[in-house]
């Protein structure tokens, strides 16, 4: 912008009102410079919380506790146990199959439009899939559990690595149908 240009406010009369929630600024309303009444009160951007964990099996419990704190802060009580189970399973899968030595994983939780979304970001290769695990085996059922309790789940590419996500509807009629993936 050169010195002869009008200030940005002259071209954009609406200013976001920023709130700080969980360490992230987010806009909940728009106001005009001359009128501080709320405009577009239906706009509710996603709430987001995330945390990074190093490659260690001891991080599954803190990841689950972080998810429980997040749900509590958001006032989410329904589906709480399902969400926490999936956080544990996705974090464990990331540690076992997706986090190379010296790296870590990121747990991201989003809440929007009656849905809680859990994402686990790792830098490992491959695509997760539901295994046909041996009935006597100690492990191998993580994604089977995620598929059974989440409304939707899947994967997204990331450079490097991938994101494994799952979603939970929070109210009547909010569920996304049968569980599916990939």
Q: What is the end-to-end distance? A: 46 Å
Q: Share of helix among residues?
A: 25-40%
Outline, from the CA principal axes? globular
The strand line-up of the biggest sheet is 3-4-5-7-6
Radius of gyration: 20 Å
Largest β-sheet summary: 5 strands, antiparallel
How many beta strands in the DSSP annotation?
A: 7
Indicate the structural class: alpha+beta
Low-pLDDT stretches:
5-44, 173-182
The helix-strand sequence is HEEEHHEEHEE
How many H/I helices? 4
Question: Mean of the pLDDT scores?
Answer: 75
Strand content: 25-35%
Oligomer: single chain
Describe it.
Helices cover 25% and strands 31% of the residues. The protein has four helices and seven strands, in the order αβββααββαββ. It has a five-stranded antiparallel β-sheet, covered by helices on one side. Strands 1-2 form a two-stranded antiparallel ribbon. The longest helix has 19 residues. The protein is globular and about 40 Å long. The C terminus is likely disordered.
Main features:
182 residues; alpha+beta; five-stranded antiparallel sheet; two-stranded antiparallel ribbon; 4 helices; disordered C terminus
């Amino acid at each position: 912008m050169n010195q002869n240009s009008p200030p940005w406010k002259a071209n954009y009369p609406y200013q976001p009102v920023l709130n700080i929630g969980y360490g992230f600024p987010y806009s909940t309303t728009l106001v005009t410079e001359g009128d501080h009444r709320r405009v577009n009160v239906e706009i509710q951007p996603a709430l987001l919380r995330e945390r990074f964990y190093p490659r260690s099996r001891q991080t599954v419990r803190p990841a689950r506790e972080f998810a429980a704190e997040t749900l509590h802060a958001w006032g989410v009580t329904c589906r709480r146990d399902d969400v926490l189970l999936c956080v544990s399973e996705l974090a464990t899968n990331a540690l076992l199959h997706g986090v190379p030595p010296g790296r870590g994983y990121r747990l991201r939780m989003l809440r929007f439009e009656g849905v809680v979304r859990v994402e686990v970001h790792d830098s490992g290769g491959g695509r997760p899939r539901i295994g046909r695990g041996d009935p006597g085996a100690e492990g191998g059922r993580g994604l089977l559990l995620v598929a059974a309790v989440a409304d939707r789940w899947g994967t997204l590419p990331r450079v490097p690595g991938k994101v494994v996500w799952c979603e939970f509807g929070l109210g009547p009629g909010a569920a996304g149908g049968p569980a599916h993936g990939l």
